[in-house]
Each structure stands twice: as structure tokens, then as C-alpha cells.
Amino acid sequence: MAAQQTTRYVAETAQLGDQPVVVLRDRQDGRRLRVARHGAALLGFEWPHRGALQDLADGYRDGAEVLARPGSRFAIMAPFAGRVADARYRFDGRLEDLQPGARGTERAARHGFVRGVAFALDALVADQEHAQAVLSTQAIRPQPGYPHAIDLALVFTLDGGGLTLEARMRNVGEHAAPCFFGWHPYFRLADDTVVDGWQLQIPAQTLIRTGADLIALPGAAAYVPLDDAPALDFRQPRPIGDSIIDQGYTDLAAEPDGRIRTRLRDPGSGLGIAVWQERGVMHAFTGDTIGRDPRRSMALEPMECMADAFNRPECAAAIRLEPGQERRFRCGVEVETA
Asked: Residue 199: which H helix or E strand, with range?
């Protein structure tokens, strides 16, 4: 598909090795967004800063990584995000098992069903105001533990405000289905530093407490006021330091425009980002346990509901999607420079 030549913004296709890629770019200042069709994983998000382009995305580096998915970088998580406890849940009175026959540590259902899916490219649009790509999949279909059918469409937009990702989930089955959306991006503000010196701000009032299995504790024990967890309290921006973070945050406060912004900033360069969402929870991860370049980037994961929401009674209404109904979730990234 050829690039458009008459507008400020361009939407086109390219390759990363043998992997098809969608590219959205601003011809005027060089800003560029690259998304792999495999898994709809964002590969790069380049933004001009101090006379050069800075890639803010710590994505997959080559076609082999796109297929192998190390660290689930920029994973699209649907119809659930995070883990499902013991890979089992109950919905409308029926017990479901996502991994029949699996035992012990093999029972590790996480991040949904589409990380390894080749998404269809439905549309590329570019004009003077923005560039946009629409990717979709019908891969979420009845399977062990999930007897439901969800069509998923993703709209990636690059414009003057940054990056917007809109997820559209439609129940095309005959019965109500549990589903919710999450995104698993990793961001870096400099190539030669670790996260310790960066400043983090999460506008939450409550920490989601988990056990060693990273599953939220039962009932009210899962919710801890941040006044009682000062080591993980980032309501005011402060350096990450040596904190090891792999935590969900809830009761998020929106700004006057309705966006909830989690901010990450490098004081040395003045470069920062705001990861925004309109509802849900934020999961923050300092990347200590990933195999490649630990603590060189920060995962800030906007999620429609908390991990293991299929097993949380308080999430039942939020995850329920009736037949024929569509639910949308919007999030994105704004770049903030000093």
C-alpha cells in the first residue's frame, strides 16, 4: 500500500523482517508510530526532543521478538488482562476452566487470547490532522473455558496530541460474555539510564494488594489505602529509586477533561509522558523480572478492570457484555517536555 503524498500525516505499510507493520507518521516533524500486525503490538513511538527523535517505546526489536513475545511488550490483552486465578472462574453459574488438564505451575492463564494473532488491516487514513490505522480480529471465539465470541477492533491514532488507542469489543455470540481490555506498554525516557532516577506519579487512592502469585487477595483485603502503603504511594511525583513495583492501582482521579493521567518524567532531560485512560485501573511494573534490559523501561498498563476480574464479584457488572452490545475503552500517550 503506497504512502499518501499530499497530506501532513501519512499512513502506510512496511516490514520488520518478515513481519508486516503499519506506520503512522507526521511528515512535518518526523513523529512516527509503528505497529506490528502480529498481536497489534506497538513497536516504536518516536517523538522530537532537543533536535533529535527519541523512541519512547521499548518494543520488540525484530521479527523474531514479535513472534516470541518476550515480556509481552505492548501486548493487547483481551478478553481479559493480567492473570486469571488458577485459570478458573465462574460466570452465570457455570464453572469454566481455561486450561483443562493442566496442573500446578502450568496453570498460568494470562493476558487473553490475541497476543499471537495476525490482525487484519481494515483501514489506513491520513489527512492534515492525523494518521489512523484500524486493526481487527475475530480470533476470540469459543474455546476451552471461554464459550463466547467477541469481535475486537483497535484504532491507533497519531495526531498533535500524541497517541490514542481505542479498543472496541462486540459480543457476537448468543449469550452474555465476560470481557475487558488491557494494554501492556513499556516506556523508556532515555537509552542509557535505568528507571531509578525517573519520577512517577499515579493519581490513585488505593493499592491493590496481591499474594505471592500476583493474584489480588480475597474481598476487601485486596484494597489498601495509599496512606497505609507509603512505599508504593506515588500520588505526588517522586523518584522511583530502588522501589520494585508490580502493582495495580485503583480509585483513580480524573483531571477536568475527563482523562486520568499517570506520569513518568526524566528530570535530567525534561522529557516526560502522560499515559491516559478514561476509567479502570493502572498497573505499574518496573520490569525487574523481564529477561531483556531489566529496569531500563517502565510498564504503565491502562486496564479496564483489575487482573482476575472474572473472579471478583465487585467487577461483575463492568466485565459483562450482553449479546449484540459493544463496549469501548480509550487510552493513550501524551508527550510532555520541559
From this structure: strand 199-201
Q: Give the range of the structural domain holding residue 242, as residue numbers without chain letter.
A: 9-337
- Work out whether the CA dihedral 113, 118, 121, 126 comes out positive or negative: positive
Q: Is the peptide bond before 70 cis (omega within 30 degrees of 0)?
A: no
Q: What is the pLDDT of residues 312-338, one digit of tens each?
A: 999 999 999 999 999 999 999 999 987
Q: Is residue 2 part of a domain?
A: no
Examine residue 187 and state whether it is found in any structural domain, yes or no: yes
Share of the chain above pLDDT 90, in %: 92
Contact assessment for residue 49 and residue 66, using Cβ atoms and an 8 Å cutoff:
no
Q: Does residue 193 surpass a pLDDT of 90?
A: no
Q: Quick check: is 4 in a domain?
A: no
Any idea what the CATH number is for the domain that residue 162 is in? 2.70.98.10
**Is pLDDT of 282 > 70?**
yes
What pTM was computed for the model? 0.96
Closest CA to 181 of 83, 313, 80: 80
C-alpha to C-alpha distance for 28 and 36, rounded to whole angstroms: 23
Q: How many domains does the chain have?
A: 1
